[in-house]
Specification:
alpha/beta, single chain, seven-stranded antiparallel sheet, Beta-Lactamase, disordered N terminus
Length: 397
């Protein structure tokens, strides 16, 4: 360990010990098998207990050169253990792009170490963390890694908007969603939609999605809804000094998958019934208005009040201009609340509006978060007379 590090007050507090790599398993959802192990730096105290050494690499009192020496020491120890990996697994090594950008050497230390210990680069994943280095230098390094056969991963995707240019430029094989954002998304609300959108972006880019920091069953289910291929976290195992068996979590994942299947099936049936009720209700409203020239607010409100999950209704002319108030339904009181705020607004630019004039009898919008109630909802639109377009916002489960 470098002399300057030994004098670091935090390490003195911990008591002298060793920096070692510990390995957290990465679990494949479809098979339940461990497909990789992320090497993480741990400070092992003299009494044998291990704590994360991550703080060393963010402490401004430690020079970049010292941090690089620390990191490479741990990385070299990890690379020496690649030969002990279970069959059909890879080792993930974290590398800071910032250190790549300040390097004056044309060679890459990781590639040199793989050559030194006779390690097949195809059994290694380089995970780029803290995406704040020079993109040109990073791209050159990534090209060298790829040429050698190493896969590239981006860590903490979603933690900063600057990462979007990294995804475009580097075309990573693996994208890890930001752990804090992922855990927040699992709680619902706006963060849920943000994470789902990021996951969709990852999928469209052709990258494998990994969710890390998975600690609860609810987070496991949320990761599945996001389309995660792999997961890691305390739900399965912390980082350990030795590699856990590939089949260690197969049964656990199988049970969780089965529970998720049942939950989703039940949810789908509930949603399908809700939509069936919705379509029957609006068909009744449409039939009632075939011989009318104006909207019967009382009939519409009375008919819709029996519908599960109703939020509001309003009506517009075929030109898109809303000519009625918003009628919001209060579940608590069972009363319709009239609001003129959006009267006169034009919705012709909304897909669920103009699609009606392309031959569709009714149009149901994609799911979105309602601004007023912050609930996930969809808007159904239908033309009930030549001059009246009815729009109904309904909560989705």
């Amino acid at each position: 360990m470098p002399e300057g590090i030994l004098n670091h007050p935090d390490l003195l507090t911990e008591g002298h010990g060793d920096l070692k790599p510990f390995f957290q398993p990465i679990v494949e959802v479809s098979s339940g098998k461990v497909t990789g192990y992320e090497a993480l730096a741990r400070f092992v105290r003299s009494d044998g207990t291990a704590v994360s050494a991550g703080y060393l690499f963010t402490d401004s009192r430690i020079s970049i050169e010292d941090k690089k020496r620390l990191d490479r020491s741990v990385r070299e120890q990890a690379i020496q253990k690649v030969h002990q990996l279970p069959e059909h697994t890879r080792m993930t090594l974290n590398i800071s792009p910032q250190w790549l950008s300040v390097s004056s050497s044309k060679s890459l230390p990781t590639l040199d170490l793989l050559l030194k210990y006779g390690v097949d680069p195809r059994r290694v994943v380089v995970e780029l963390v803290e995406m704040n280095g020079d993109l040109s230098c990073i791209s050159q390094a990534v090209a060298k890694y790829r040429k050698a056969g190493i896969r590239i991963a981006i860590d903490d995707f979603g933690a900063g908007f600057s990462q979007f240019d990294r995804v475009i430029a580097l075309e990573p094989d693996i994208i890890k969603l930001d752990m804090r954002l992922f855990q927040q998304g699992a709680q619902g609300g706006v963060a849920e939609y943000v994470v789902e959108s990021l996951a969709t972006l990852c999928t469209k880019s052709g990258a494998v999605i990994v969710c890390e920091g998975v600690e609860t069953e609810e987070e496991f289910y949320f990761a599945l809804r996001c389309g995660a291929h792999h997961m890691q976290g305390f739900l399965f195992s912390p980082a350990t000094e030795e590699f856990v068996d590939r089949e260690a979590f197969s049964h656990q994942v199988a049970v969780l998958r089965a529970r998720f299947f049942e939950q989703q099936k039940e949810q789908f049936c509930k949603t399908r019934k809700q939509y069936q009720d919705l379509y029957r209700t609006v068909e009744l409203i449409s039939n009632q208005h075939k011989i009318m020239d104006q909207l019967d607010i009382e009939f519409v409100s009375t008919t819709l009040s029996h519908l599960d999950g109703i939020i509001r209704f309003y009506a517009a002319h075929p030109t898109g201009e809303q000519f009625t108030a918003n009628y919001d339904y209060s579940k608590t009181t069972g009363v319709w609340i009239k609001g003129d705020r959006f009267k006169g607004y034009n919705w012709s630019w909304r897909p669920y509006f103009y699609q009606l004039f392309a031959g569709e009898s009714t149009v149901l919008s994609p799911r979105y978060l309602d601004i007023d109630t912050t609930k996930p909802c969809k808007t159904l639109s239908l033309q009930i007379t030549e001059n009246i377009i009815l729009m109904v916002d309904i909560e989705v489960y």
